[in-house]
Amino acid sequence: MHFTDRTDAGRRLAGALQSAAPDLRGAVVVALPRGGAPVAAEVAAALGAELDVCVVRKVGVPGQPEVAMGAVGEDGARVVNQQVVDAAGVPPEDYAAVEVRERAELARRAAAYRRGRAPVPLAGRTVLVVDDGVATGSSALAACRIVRARGAARVVLAVPVAPHDWAQRLGGAADAYVAVHAPEGFRSVGEFYRDFRQTTDAEVLAALERPGAPGAPGTAGYEVPLAAGPAELAVPADPLGVVLFAHGSGSGRGSPRNRAVAERLHRAGLATVLFDLLTPGEAEEPWKVFDPGLLGGRLTAATRAVLRHHALAGLPYGWFGASTGAAAALWAAAEPGTAPAAIVSRGGRPDLAAARLSLVAVPTLLVVGGADGEVVELNRRAAAELRGPSALQVVPGAGHLFAEPGALAAVADLAAHWFVRWFPPGEGGDRARH
């Protein structure tokens, strides 16, 4: 079994939890960042549970940092895997040096993720400790000890993948163990993911501030059923308009990048809709992922469906497209009868919609990373072809995924300003006033 990415793994883990541990009322989901955060965000959303983090750092073998010889965590938690230490021949002074470095990084991440907020109270509650997988188990063991010390009445350790004997290895660390996949032939967590790129701090923060999640301030959440899965609506008070996200290959409606941008749009008074254009099975077929006609048709149909929802009635709308999703938005914008007020493309592939670019009169903002040279040139050519108002914004130093510090925030700010600029003030504004 392979997971597409951490979002896919989180959705599957949520289903396994609902089957294996159905009585989870009042539970708290605690993520092990960074990789566990997007997994836990999906679990918390599916269960309607509060989401928090438990910051733990692996203490890696010198020269082999991916091999854990222990772990350190918040509240002074410490785990030493003596078997690994002995096998690697690590002397005490070398272990201590690595531990000091990891505790410094632990403190930095805890401050960055919590932003002055106190941990969610755990006393007397069921706590689901969630990571993207378990290998040696040192980090998971430290996390379980931390949540028990904070008063958890019941601890469930839940991961998408772990070795077949993981529960025996961890003993009484948790009261229950849930894994989607626990194979005998286990070498590493990453081998079970198609996309196992490192999670960024920005993605952890986006998961913790997931739009429409329980406790997210200022928005009302709704779901609309669509052919490829539910559309997630997040509607702030008195919205000025609504932005529908058309993401591309390698992403999904649960993408932390999309959710981070959506959070910024909410602060600008805009509603958002996150959904999938393709089913998980279709997303495995490259010709569908790169077919702008198919994706554009799905986007048009989804737009018509969600705009019938009472929370969005009368609002102007726009499309935020990423990668091949941007091509879908541009393709759909040339269709007779469509009327988006604006389009924003993030790292888009407008060349896939080249046959229709000269027909697009919708105000379009093309945002690309300065380090994404080939895509910058594709977007320059596209900007010259578009018939309506357009602008090209290059974010200096950013790559295709805008994972660099501050890069995604820059995209979100540019998108918010563009949509507010081009959304007609009469429709959303009149609705808000009345």
How would you portray this structure in words?
- This is Phosphoribosyltransferase family protein.
- With 434 residues, the chain is an alpha/beta fold.
- The protein has two domains: 6-192, Rossmann fold (3-Layer(aba) Sandwich), CATH 3.40.50; 213-433, Rossmann fold, CATH 3.40.50.
- It is 37% helix and 21% strand.
- It has 14 helices and 16 strands.
- It has helices spanning 6-20, 36-47, 82-88, 92-114, 138-149, 166-170, 201-208, 256-267, 286-289, 292-306, 324-333, 373-385, 407-422, 425-433, and strands spanning 28-31, 50-53, 56-61, 64-73, 78-80, 126-130, 154-161, 176-181, 219-224, 231-236, 241-246, 270-274, 317-322, 342-346, 364-369, 390-395.
- The model is unreliable at 211-216 and 427-434 (pLDDT under 50).
Helix content range of the residues, please?
25-40%
Q: Secondary-structure element sequence?
A: HEHEEEEHHEHEHEHEEEHEHHEHEEHEHH
Low-confidence stretches: 211-216, 427-434
- Supply the CATH superfamily name of the largest domain: Alpha/Beta hydrolase fold, catalytic domain
CATH topology of the largest domain: Rossmann fold
Shape: elongated
Estimated radius of gyration: 23 Å
Strand order of the largest sheet: 9-10-12-11-13-14-15-16
- Summing up helix and strand content along with how strands pair, one would put the structural category as alpha/beta
Provide a count of the helices: 14
CATH architecture of the largest domain: 3-Layer(aba) Sandwich
For the largest beta-sheet, the strand count, sense and barrel status come to: 8 strands, mixed
The CATH class of the largest domain, by name, is: Alpha Beta
According to DSSP, the number of beta strands is 16
User: What is the count of structural domains?
Assistant: 2
Keywords: Glycosyltransferase, Transferase
Domain Phosphoribosyltransferase: 28-163
InterPro entries: AB_hydrolase_fold (IPR029058), PRTase-like (IPR029057), PRTase_dom (IPR000836)
Pfam families: Pribosyltran (PF00156)
